[in-house]
Amino acid sequence: MPMSLTLAVSSKRHGLDLSLEEWREWSREEGAPLYVADQIISWIFHKNTLNPDDFSNISWPIRNLLKDSFNWNEMTIEQRLLSKDASEKFLLKTHDGLWLEMVLMPSDNRTTLCISSQVGCRMGCTFCQTGKMGFQRNLTVGEILMQIHLANKFTKVTNIVFMGMGEPLDNYEAVVKACKQMISKKGYRLSKSKVTISTSGLIPEIQKLGSDLPVRLAISLHQADNAKRSKIMPVNRKYSLGDLKKALLNYPSPPRYGITFEYVLIERVNDTLADAKKLVRFLHGLKAKVNLIPINLFPGVDMRPSSAERIRDFQLYLTSRSIPAPVRYSRGQDISGGCGQLAAKRQEELNLDPREVARRRRQGQMKSL
Hints:
Elements (H helix, E strand, L loop, with lengths): L2 H9 L8 H11 L4 H12 L13 H10 L6 E7 L5 E6 L5 E8 L4 E4 L3 E3 L8 H4 L2 E4 L2 H11 L7 E4 L9 H12 L11 E5 L3 H10 L3 E5 L5 H7 L8 H9 L9 E7 L7 H11 L4 E7 L13 H13 L33 H15 L1
Parallel strand pairs: 4-7, 7-8, 8-9, 9-10, 10-11
Antiparallel strand pairs: 1-2, 2-3, 3-4, 5-6
Helix pairs in contact: 2-3, 6-7, 11-12
């Protein structure tokens, strides 16, 4: 895409970026009836339509104004990879040529969409392929919601988990605004109990989230020893476990659900009985569920999943202390769509180190200039 066209596209706000209140403000400024805002929102979220030409209950002058004033383009679906377990990974391309992924996971009674909040990630967790990509930029509100829009073309999404690329609370304002659209009756009408934000532990944002948004919280914990956690999760060097625990004790989690903790089990890193005991002590006083996830491998990682015996012993210790601890084997592992595996790769790139993929793409961009 020529540079001038890229700038022209990105200079307009996307239709998915605006809330109902912002559409009402736009209607007032343009001298349109305020009910037009509700009609626009209904077309976008309830009818899953991003073409103003199709907004049939809105006058043509307003439809033309909408086309001229906003960007209505969809992200490009560059590739769809179907797993043997029926989950599906989508490789998406933004207007400025960046790549991200989302994973659709159907089951008998729900369809969960794992969405991304950033292109890349700043957190640098050693067991996550996304962190090896480096960080490129935050996604906009519209780009976050676009993932739901595209997924709804194939099936009806019922659950959202912010467990794709990026640290959601590192893109706080956009993620919160997008979530409000997801749970609004004027938006995607999702139950607030079916939207989950996962974080590595950004304490100031966790504290804000509790008052800003009534959705479920998941903590990517993976270790309950400060020194050991800091080795695998650099965020812990800034926000220690003690401070994280204080924030979580004050977090207004729904009484029915509490807080979910994600714990990737890595051989000889965090899977001993001593590690389990420290985890139990950390969780004391919290209504918690722990998802135990054997690490998913990816090119360039020098870690291995814990043995079946270690996993069983770890799980039994937690459950003996009345802590629910299901073992979750990630879906989509065969398409690099499991927990910690997302790195915006094409099928032919799945076996490459993410840093090599990034290097090749930079070279390709330079050649195209």
